[in-house]
């Protein structure tokens, strides 16, 4: 069993409202990084011929095929975006769930333009 932890800096106001604290410290999204790692591992299985399709991977992993295919799209991210994510410098709203719900184009510059809109 993996124990993944994620730190989310919060400030609590006088009225007890929680808000994200503004900080320049890296904020590693462990769930996202795990998904990214799985995507590249699965892509390697496909490239090597050990697995023939995302559906075959899904069956072996006990997952729905759409989950595997959604994560495999992460392997198409621009290298500098992947580096930003791995360094914990991504915009706070840029989560794995966002990538699963929104298709990014294959064009790396267009990806960068979309990511820049989060700032």
UniProtKB/TrEMBL annotation:
<protein>
    <submittedName>
        <fullName>Site-specific recombinase resolvase</fullName>
    </submittedName>
</protein>
């Amino acid at each position: 069993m993996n124990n993944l932890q994620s730190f989310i800096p919060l400030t609590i106001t006088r009225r007890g409202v929680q808000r994200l604290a503004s900080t320049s410290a890296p904020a590693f999204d462990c769930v996202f990084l795990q998904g990214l790692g799985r995507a590249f591992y699965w892509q390697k299985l496909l490239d090597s011929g050990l697995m023939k399709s995302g559906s075959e991977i899904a069956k072996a992993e006990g997952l729905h095929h759409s989950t595997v295919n959604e994560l495999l799209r992460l392997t198409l991210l621009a290298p500098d975006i992947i580096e930003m994510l791995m360094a914990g410098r991504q915009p706070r709203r840029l989560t794995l769930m966002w990538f699963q719900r929104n298709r990014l184009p294959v064009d790396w510059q267009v990806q960068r333009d979309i990511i820049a809109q989060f700032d």
